[in-house]
From TrEMBL, chain A:
GO BP terms, alphabetized: DNA replication initiation; DNA replication, synthesis of primer
Pfam name, any one: DNA_primase_lrg_N
Spans annotated as Disordered: 468-489
Name the record gives this protein: DNA primase large subunit
Source organism of the structure: Kwoniella shandongensis
Cofactor annotation: [4Fe-4S] cluster
Family: Belongs to the eukaryotic-type primase large subunit family.
Keywords: 4Fe-4S, DNA replication, DNA-binding, Iron, Iron-sulfur, Metal-binding, Primosome
TrEMBL record, chain B:
Enzyme Commission code: 2.7.7.-
InterPro entries with a match to the protein in the record: DNA_primase_S, DNA_primase_ssu_euk/arc
Species assigned in the record: Kwoniella shandongensis
GO biological process, one term: DNA replication, synthesis of primer
Keywords assigned: DNA replication, DNA-directed RNA polymerase, Metal-binding, Nucleotidyltransferase, Primosome, Transcription, Transferase, Zinc
Any single GO CC term annotated in Swiss-Prot or TrEMBL for this entry: alpha DNA polymerase:primase complex
Protein name: DNA primase
Chain segments annotated as coiled-coil in the UniProt record: none
Entry keyword annotation includes Transferase: yes
Recorded superkingdom: Eukaryota
Gene3D superfamilies documented for this protein: DNA primase, PRIM domain
Family assignment from sequence similarity: Belongs to the eukaryotic-type primase small subunit family.
One Pfam family recorded for the sequence: DNA_primase_S
Length: 509, 429
């Protein structure tokens, strides 16, 4: 376990020859530049906790530096950017805030960089091992950081690093390669020419060690073994990195209460964990405080608000509900939480849903099977968690709609023909042959769903192109659409009122 | 519910009556193999003692987080509670029944059979014989096709051995995989397996629900899907073109045209031809399409290929297993236990042999009423000395229990083998 201590309360450094050596090494490393025995490679699996001594200040600053990187990575990945853009974003950001050079770099203190990197990682482990949620986020972002470094690493150094890890991957021999030639070939997404096939080699691993490749159908699988080509090796490495880190974090969490630690560290660690949480809540939706621009909505008002202020996904759900008097589970959840975010209080929500289900459902059935879920989503039942409305990110990526479902994002989950018909019928401002419509469908084709949605907002609210929800913000949350829409309506109304007041005053004068 | 009268008058046993269910639980439920199946050992292990059972009692009362020390304790509680049905959850990190005494978050699901659920409702848009809760021998064809493909893929591709297929009592089928490798899968791994297997995706508003060829929709099929496609081609002809006649109605063939590439020169003539002759059966319509596409081969090869791929996708969309993905993804999902009685139909959830799934007829599955009648007629137990026979051996439940016992025996053989190997290894040290 990590045991930080300041220099002067070390027992006595001369009595500990091992430590002496390490300290000397570090000192000798300064200025020399070459890699030391402790950090022979730029990449690090962080298998062995550092046993060197550090100052309290370093403890905190190294951790904060790394935390900044991780937060940046997380916010980049929330912005649904193309992967190349995320990768270059991470690279430039780490270069300035937490540089880590390869062995070939000159005029750099490699040891110092690697020490910073390692210590930062281990301190954050202490901060992030506490809850499953924090652990998951830490593993995700650390893996992204590792991936970025792995991809940008020097080829020879990377190969040496991989050898040092001693994975027991089984290599597919030539005869087996020949047996499954057609199958292996059809999983080669990068090209199926003969020489490419000849040049490639495969590893054989149990399929569950590479879930991402399996989920994407990117590898051939037979009898429980996945055939991973050399070029996809990275996912094997990442998987190993993530699963080892996850296990280590769980172990740390178990031992944390027993950690015989200095009471000066507790507050630092607490602070680190909380700042990670608060800095990254941005993708969650926080309803405006007080009456502000979004005032409460009652069950009667929903229909009117839906007509004027609902984004496409919610409009679709609402229309379905009106027509069928029923929605499947995830549809209810998506719409229900959205309405909650809109300011529909619990008792009004119950009235609303009761009314929408109509006579097709008996009161008894409603009370028994549906009321609980509504109350649950308002944090009144079960573990009483106050669930936030779903963001676009969640709607796009989690709980994909099944064949009978109508939730999800119309831009992503409708076929182009149905999307066109739907948009035309819900937003009369759009025009079938118009340039805007084409633009929207083009964005959909390139999988820029939020761009398409933002464009619909701009057109229906007569906002200049590129302005989005104000200040070029694109739609990232259904509730943000509605809030902005209602805010704009209010501004217009106030404008008219002011004008009327002005007119009256003129008359008075 | 009325039970057909056979040779002599029978008592009308109603599956919703508590006495009937009680008799079933006391006399017919195969506790011994059921326990061994979950526990994979003779002595109660964590796989049983830390396992969650959830009971649904009469009046929709639902009791979760039950767990039991022994098979006898389980039996006693089932007979006492007399549930309408019960479900099986995962093995937790502690005994589920102790959950109130545990620290928050200490009760985590750990191991669980990999399960699949296929339900007829997901086929509503493509079956023409029944809708909603109904099922007949004809629509079972879809389930049969699905079972064959899924069974093949789980065995050949993923290398699982111990698959138990169970009729769900009304209109679906479940699959339980008891291999140690399957028990150990975490949620991420389960999810990736399901994503690998899942082919039909998309909401109501998406007409083409098969998109498995990459973003440009022109890649090759994954070898596993190619395998499945070969298996499904015959089912498609027999099931969709002939039996179900999926493209007979206007809605049916418009759905087909909507999935194909939107090329006016091919689609237009087909549509007008079919409109002119609305009674044209599906196999002839499919023949029309095949010959129209064949015409493209010479001059418009890329378009020909596009149609070929689209037609393969049609076969997948109409016959590939439509699994309820959420059931399989999470270890803590509860699934109804085998040998429960479906409260609506009274039918017992019996194991199904995947090799004979075509012959399986949901209407011939024994109901709890029939079984109790058979018991009534069975000779009174022989006097002492004779080996005691289980009650279910005197009913038509017998072959199903035997099938189940055979399955369980295979699991036990493997787990004993594994344990012995482990012991020998540890002796080596």
């Amino acid at each position: 376990m990590f045991r930080p201590s300041t220099r002067h309360n070390l027992p006595s450094s001369s009595s500990n020859p091992a430590l002496e050596v390490k300290l000397n090494k570090r000192q000798s490393g300064i200025g020399a530049g070459g890699p030391s025995a402790r950090w022979p490679y730029r990449l690090n699996f962080y298998e062995h906790p550092p046993t060197l001594d550090i100052t309290l200040e370093e403890f905190e600053t190294f951790a904060i530096a790394r935390l900044r990187i991780l937060s940046h990575i997380e916010s980049l990945s929330h912005r649904s950017l193309p992967y190349a853009q995320i990768a270059s974003g991470i690279t430039t950001y780490t270069k300035t805030h937490l540089p880590l050079s390869s062995n070939t770099a000159r005029n750099v203190n490699l040891d110092e960089e690697r020490r910073r990197d390692e210590i930062g990682h281990w301190v954050l482990r202490l901060a992030f091992c506490r809850s499953p949620d924090l652990r998951a986020r830490f593993v995700r972002t650390e893996t992204a950081l590792f991936k970025n470094r792995f991809e940008t690493d020097d080829i020879h150094e990377r190969a040496a690093f991989l050898r040092s890890l001693e994975f027991d991957w089984q290599i597919v021999d030539e005869s087996e390669k020949a047996t499954y030639a057609t199958e292996l070939r059809s999983c080669m997404s990068w090209g199926t020419k003969d020489d490419q096939f000849k040049a490639e080699s495969w590893f054989k691993v149990p399929w569950y060690t590479v879930p991402d490749l399996v989920g994407g159908r990117r590898v051939f699988i037979r009898a429980g073994m996945a055939y991973v080509p050399q070029s996809l090796q990275i996912s094997l490495v990442l998987q190993a990195f993530a699963s080892r880190l996850e296990k280590a974090l769980e172990l740390t969490a178990k031992n944390l209460p027993r950690l015989d630690e200095d009471e000066r560290l507790g507050p630092v660690i607490d602070h680190l964990a909380s700042s990670f949480l608060s800095g990254l809540g941005a993708s969650d939706y926080q309803p405006a405080e007080g009456s502000g621009s979004t005032s409460a909505v009652t069950a009667e008002m929903v229909d009117d608000v839906a007509r004027k202020h609902f984004p496409p996904c919610m409009k679709n759900l609402y229309e379905r509900l009106k027509r069928d008097h029923h929605l499947k589970h995830f549809g209810r959840l998506q719409l229900g939480l959205f309405l909650k975010g809109l300011g529909l209080p619990l008792d009004e929500a119950i009235v609303f849903w009761r009314r929408m289900y109509g006579a097709t459902m008996s009161d008894d059935k409603f009370n028994k099977e549906y009321k609980y879920n509504i109350r649950h989503s308002y944090g009144q039942e079960g573990k009483r968690a106050n669930y936030p409305p779903k963001s676009c990110q969640q709607i796009l990526t989690s709980n994909q709609p099944g064949t009978q479902d109508s939730h999800g994002c119309p831009f992503r989950h409708f076929s182009p023909e149905n999307l066109t018909t739907f948009l035309l019928s819900s937003y009369p401002q759009l025009d079938r042959g118009g340039a805007e419509m084409r633009e929207i469908l083009d964005s959909v084709k390139t999988a820029h769903y939020h761009v398409a949605c933002t464009r619909v907002f701009e057109i229906t609210h007569s906002v200049k192109k590129g302005e989005g929800l104000g200040n070029a913000e694109s739609v990232s949350h259904p509730n943000k659409w509605s809030d902005r829409s209602r805010e704009m309506e209010k501004e217009v109304l106030e404008g008219i009122k002011r004008k009327e007041d002005g007119d009256e005053m003129m008359v008075d004068a | 519910m009325p039970i057909p009268v056979r040779d002599e008058p029978m008592v009308d046993y109603d599956p919703s009556s508590p006495q009937v269910m009680n008799a079933f639980y006391r006399r017919l439920f195969p506790y011994r193999p059921f326990f061994l199946w979950l526990n994979q050992d003779q002595i109660p292990a964590k796989l049983f003692t830390h396992r969650e059972f959830a009971f649904t009692l009469a009046g929709d009362v639902y009791i979760r987080y039950n767990s039991f020390h022994t098979a006898d304790e389980f039996k006693k509680e089932v007979v006492r509670l007399n549930p309408a049905r019960f479900e099986i959850g995962p093995q937790y990190s502690a005994r589920p029944r102790d959950r109130k005494t545990l620290a928050a978050g200490a009760l985590q699901p750990q191991r669980r059979e990999l399960v699949f659920d296929i339900d007829m409702t997901d086929y509503d848009e493509i079956r023409t014989c029944c809708t909603d809760k109904k099922i007949c021998k004809r629509c079972w064809g879809y389930i049969a096709a699905a079972v064959k493909v899924l069974d093949h893929s789980l065995r050949e591709t993923f290398g699982f051995k111990h698959l138990l297929w169970v009729y769900s009592g009304r209109r679906g089928i479940h699959c339980w995989i008891s291999d140690p490798a399957a028990l150990d899968l975490n949620d991420d791994q389960r999810k990736s397996l399901v994503t690998f297997l899942e082919v039909i995706k998309g909401s109501k508003e998406q007409s083409k629900k098969v998109n498995v060829r990459g973003s440009k929709d022109e890649g090759d099929l994954h070898p596993a899907l190619k395998d499945a496609l070969e298996q499904l081609k015959t089912s498609f002809v027999k099931l969709c073109l002939q039996d179900q006649d999926c493209f007979q109605s206007e809605r049916g063939w418009e759905n087909l045209l909507a999935i194909l590439p939107q090329d006016r020169d091919v689609i237009g003539p087909l549509r007008s031809k079919w409109q002119a002759d609305p009674g044209r059966p599906s196999d002839e319509k499919w023949g029309d399409l095949v010959s129209a596409v064949a015409m493209l081969k010479k001059n418009q090869y890329p378009l020909f290929q596009k149609f070929q791929r689209a037609m393969e996708d049609v076969v997948l969309q109409y016959t590939y297993p439509r699994i309820d993905a959420e059931v399989s993804k999470h270890r803590n999902h509860l699934l109804k236990a085998p040998f429960c009685v479906h409260p609506g139909t009274g039918r017992v959830c019996v194991p199904v042999n995947p090799d004979l799934v075509d012959e399986f007829d949901p209407d011939t599955v024994p109901t709890v009423g029939e079984l109790l009648n058979q018991l009534d007629k069975a000779p009174v137990e022989a006097a002492d000395g004779a080996k005691r026979i289980e009650d279910y051996d005197q009913t038509s439940l017998k072959p199903y229990v035997e099938m189940f016992e055979k399955h369980v025996a295979a699991i036990l053989r493997d787990s004993r083998g594994a344990k012995r190997a482990f012991k020998e290894e540890s002796m080596d040290f």
